[in-house]
Specification:
- The chain has about 140 residues and is α+β, with helices and mostly antiparallel strands.
- It has one domain (about 15-130).
- It is about 40% helix and about 15% strand.
- The chain contains four helices and five strands, in the order H-E-E-E-H-H-E-H-E.
- A five-stranded mixed β-sheet has the order 1-2-3-5-4, covered by helices on one side.
- The longest helix is centred in the C-terminal third of the chain and has 23 residues, at about 90-110.
């Protein structure tokens, strides 16, 4: 229990975080080798595959696709003013299509490269890909992203 009187979710151990970081490095490298822009960290400024290491105990390695700011902003601005969910504007439908297509592409590319991947929990992680495991390190020539 925290000092404020409520339970905080448990975080992963140092050893688990080290293994996740190694897996994230290999996933980022595999995406880069496939020709996709890929990076690690939480940079909303750069479009491409953002490979994140989640520190919660039940977290893991996630890959989120980031579009150019203009595409995401157009969709967000429309959502802020309110839209009819049964008749979404083209900008929102297009943004969702890009996100879904890129999630599926990242899933297939990483699976082809030997990673154990699945769609992440949409409620918690949106359209992210969950990287659960991968090739042994000796089979991968790594380049740090």
């Amino acid at each position: 229990m925290s000092q404020h009187g409520f339970d905080l979710p448990p975080t992963a151990t140092r050893d688990v975080m080290d293994r996740r970081k190694e897996l994230a490095d290999r996933a980022c490298d595999a995406l880069t080798k496939a020709g996709l822009p890929a990076f690690q960290g939480n940079s909303q400024d750069a479009p491409g595959a953002n490979v994140l290491v989640e520190s919660l105990a039940d977290g893991g390695v996630l890959v989120e696709w980031s579009t150019q700011e203009g595409l995401a902003t157009a969709a967000a601005n429309l959502l802020e003013i309110g839209v009819d969910p049964t008749n979404l504007p083209h900008a929102i439908r297009h943004y969702e299509t890009v996100q879904n297509c890129m999630r599926d592409a990242v899933l297939q590319i990483l699976a082809s490269a030997g990673f154990d991947v699945e769609k992440a929990d949409a409620h918690t992680y949106g359209s992210a890909v969950h990287v659960k495991g991968g090739l042994p390190l000796i089979l991968v020539e790594s380049r740090r992203c």
